[in-house]
Design a protein that fits this description.
2 copies of one chain form a homodimer.
Chain A: H1 2-5, E1 7-11, E2 16-18, E3 26-32, E4 35-40, E5 46-52, E6 57-58, E7 69-72, E8 76-82, H2 83-92, H3 94-120, H4 123-141, E9 150-153, H5 158-165, H6 169-181, E10 186-188, E11 192-195, H7 198-205
Antiparallel strand pairs in A: 1-8, 2-7, 3-6, 3-8, 4-5, 4-7, 9-11, 10-11
Chain A binds a DNA duplex (30 and 30 nucleotides) through residues 122-123, 157-159, 167-174, 176-177, 189-190.
Domain Cyclic nucleotide-binding (chains A, B): 1-107
InterPro entries (chains A, B): cNMP-bd_dom (IPR000595), cNMP-bd_dom_sf (IPR018490), Env_Response_Regulators (IPR050397), HTH_CRP (IPR012318), RmlC-like_jellyroll (IPR014710), WH-like_DNA-bd_sf (IPR036388), WH_DNA-bd_sf (IPR036390)
Pfam families (chains A, B): cNMP_binding, HTH_Crp_2
Chain lengths: 215, 215
DNA sequence: CGACCGATTGACTTGTCTCAAATACGGTGG
DNA sequence: CCACCGTATTTGAGACAAGTCAATCGGTCG
């Protein structure tokens, strides 16, 4: 059913997919590439409030105007549905509403966890937290899971990272240099990151889930 | 149907309603009082990630463990349902899942808007933003809507405000003093706030929706 | 009255921002 | 293949907003 309705749209890096305030006629999900959800103030200050990766859902069934800007960070392919049709489908297919609810609850948890990052972590921990997100994503999807060692490409520029972490790009750059100096990460070029020890990175991020007590 | 299942629980101010990590056997909504959603780090730093007011929903159908602490800030009455029963109801009544989805989307928007507050606003704007939330809530529910003038009681201590805004309580106190000195607000005692001009407050908060350009 | 808790205020420290300059990188055209 | 350009990034020096530590004040409750 969804298959029949869907169509694809492509966006170039830097292109705005949805403007805050605009009426959107479609919902969809990311097929490939990365996009950001951004909130902006009148004086130009802006804050990234979400990072959209493949399989993430975009749009809000039952809502008219978008609240945030959606911007393609890399070249982006989305799989879209006309909103009206999609909403009808939600009404006629209870299972879909439940699935959407689950996804939205996950996003809400992620947003709230990010509030802790923004509010209470220092610059070094913020960078480590962001790197952890990329690392985890790659750890699950790729094959390079050799005993805690990981590598991946940063999908964001320093500026975009700064915007997500609520820092300046200078501070991002400095803290990446410090983490490199301290051996938490290694760099190949500006974008390719090697994490020799994922646990170490997680501890640096301040979420030492694994119970790594620093006595 | 819901009526038959519901039961009430009361909590005293300061009491923890739900511990992060615990399995919760109920979902519910706030009847009266205020509660906070709080995220904590191992070293004790914590960040409030949500403020629960009357009519707000608590709990996550389909999820086992809670992710955040829920703490009663004032005396609190909640109307609860056993989670299992509620989930069955969600499955059998499509309309409920749709309603929950809408509420969750609203919460997600609110969380993301708060990320802008945490990430990009300075202390003065943060305080003004928080006061705006209380003011708006009271403006809609009460009768004191005399030409932009409003008054209300702060439901939170300075410490709790600091925790929500990601500031220290000293900074909260100082900025409240400054807003008072500048005539943006007046205080009666420590908790009762008078807002002579709501538009002014909104401008101070940085979200000048009304287009109030400061040339 | 005295103890206690929340709030205010002050003096000093510090992490991050700001402004500025230098450097590396990727792509383009000769 | 190389020189050149624009953009992304790094690095430095100084400024400033908010944090920290500490003292005081005010109200409330036993």
């Amino acid at each position: 059913m969804l298959e029949k309705m869907k169509y694809c749209r492509s966006f170039e890096a830097g292109q705005t997919v949805i403007w805050a305030g605009d009426e959107t006629s479609f919902v969809g999900s990311v097929v490939s590439g990365i996009a950001t959800l951004t909130q902006t103030m009148e004086d130009g200050r802006s804050q990234m409030v979400g990072l959209l990766q493949p399989s993430d859902f975009v749009g809000r069934p039952g809502r008219d105007g978008a609240v945030f800007n959606v911007i393609a960070v890399s070249d982006l392919v989305m799989c879209c549905f006309r909103k009206k049709q999609f909403e009808d489908l939600v009404h006629s297919t209870p299972h879909i509403a439940q699935r959407l609810l689950e996804m939205t609850l996950d996003e809400l948890d992620a947003a709230r966890e990010w509030m802790l990052v923004l509010g209470r972590k220092n610059a070094r921990e913020k960078i480590a937290s962001l790197l952890s997100i990329f690392a985890r994503r790659d750890a699950s999807s790729s094959s390079n899971a050799r005993e805690g060692r990981l590598e991946f490409d940063l999908p964001l520029t320093r500026e975009a990272m700064a915007n997500y972490l609520s820092l300046t790009l200078e501070t991002v750059s400095r803290q990446i240099s410090v983490l490199k100096r301290d051996g938490v990460i290694q760099l190949q070029g500006k974008r390719h990151v090697i994490v020799p020890d994922l646990d170490r990175l997680l501890i640096e991020a301040g979420d030492d889930d694994d119970g790594g007590m620093i006595v």
